[in-house]
Request: fold
Amino acid sequence: MSKIGYARVSTFDQDTGLQVAALKAAGCTVIREEKASGTSTEGRRELSTVLDFLQAGDTLVVTRVDRLARSIGDLQVIVKTIREKGASLACTEQPVDTGTAAGKAFLDMLGVFAEFETNLRKERQLEGIAKAKIEGVYKGRKPSIDVAKVHALQAEGLGATEIARRLNIGRASVYRVLDGEAS
Reply:
């Protein structure tokens, strides 16, 4: 019966230090750290490792539910996996008890709020981008393909595959450039 900690932050400039300290204080013998978005479980290797490692009687400990997931669907899948292994979930900052009906309801409410917060942040970001576009401040991402180079290489007689290889871009991108200019 081990306490296994999981700490997650969203970006590389953030630090898991406070979470790790809280997990150590909670008695975690193993702590896995990850810098990845919580909006999906895709690509979260440390979370997968922790879930694979859990055994009957273990407790997965996080500081808050939103460290596990920012969508109710992902949270429910994670909790189901924990339950199927005979393990439990605990949070250092939130009174989560997945062994009771009230605890399950509270966990789901926390998951809904985490997802709601993510959706609000996306809406604010889109509003900010729209405002910046109106003000002429937002220009979008700089083009990653040099159209002139594509045409120059084609003029030298190179095919799309060779152009893509030389410019380190996808062949479909080469075709888009060439088709866009042709029409």
In short: The domain at 147-182 is CATH 1.10.10 (Arc Repressor Mutant, subunit A). The two ends are 67 Å apart (CA to CA). The chain has two domains: 3-118, 147-182. The chain has a mean pLDDT of 87.
